[in-house]
Amino acid sequence: MNNLSLSQQYLLFTMNRQGKISSLNYYVGMCLVMAGLLDLQKANVLELNNKEVILLSNELPEDLQYLDCLLEKITGLKKKRIEAIANAYGTTFFEKDIKQLVSQIRDSLIEAEEVSIKKGFAFTCLYR
């Protein structure tokens, strides 16, 4: 396994063979969003300070470009709080926003050759 980010690792372990996450478990999507926030904090793009989210940069590192939809969502919020981010993704759970985040992270896993598309569009984990 390559050096994967927390959000990539989380998606890798929670997605099904079709490359999707369960719509029955609300927490899976929220944990993916939180993993993305932690990745952005580790890259010094933002800082999580209690309940506040402080933007330090609008530029993503090259290796985290797949989190651009999350950063755009955060910059578009009036109040940059963890609760506001959770509400923004929670109200549209498994609709456009969360599906886009899953898709972009999944595509980064394909690019890193951690998963591949097989017949019938099922995903298979590749282990080295």
Spans of 5+ residues with little confidence (pLDDT < 50)?
none
Strand order of the largest sheet: 1-2
Question: Which range does the strand content fall in?
Answer: 5-15%
- The helix count comes to 5
Q: What number of domains?
A: 1
Mean pLDDT: 86
How many angstroms separate the termini?
A: 6 Å
Report on the biggest sheet. Answer: 2 strands, antiparallel
The computed structural class is: mainly alpha
The helicity comes to 40-55%
Element string (H = helix, E = strand): HHEEHHHEE
> What coarse outline follows from CA principal-axis ratios?
globular
Gist of the model:
By secondary structure, this protein is mainly α. It contains five helices and four strands, in the order ααββαααββ.
Describe the structure.
- A hairpin with a 2-residue loop joins strand 1 and strand 2 (52-55).
- 29% of the residues are buried.
- The longest helix is centred in the first third of the chain and has 17 residues, at 26-42.
- Strands 1-2 form a two-stranded antiparallel sheet. The chain has a two-stranded antiparallel sheet with strand order 3-4.
- It starts with 5 loop residues before the first helix and ends with a strand.
- The protein has 128 residues and is mainly alpha-helical.
- Helix 1 (6-14) runs antiparallel to helix 2 and helix 1 packs across helix 5.
- It has one domain (6-125).
- It has helices spanning 6-14, 26-42, 68-76, 82-90, 96-111; strands spanning 46-49, 52-55, 115-117, 123-125.
- It has five helices and four strands.
- The radius of gyration is 14 Å and the shape is globular.
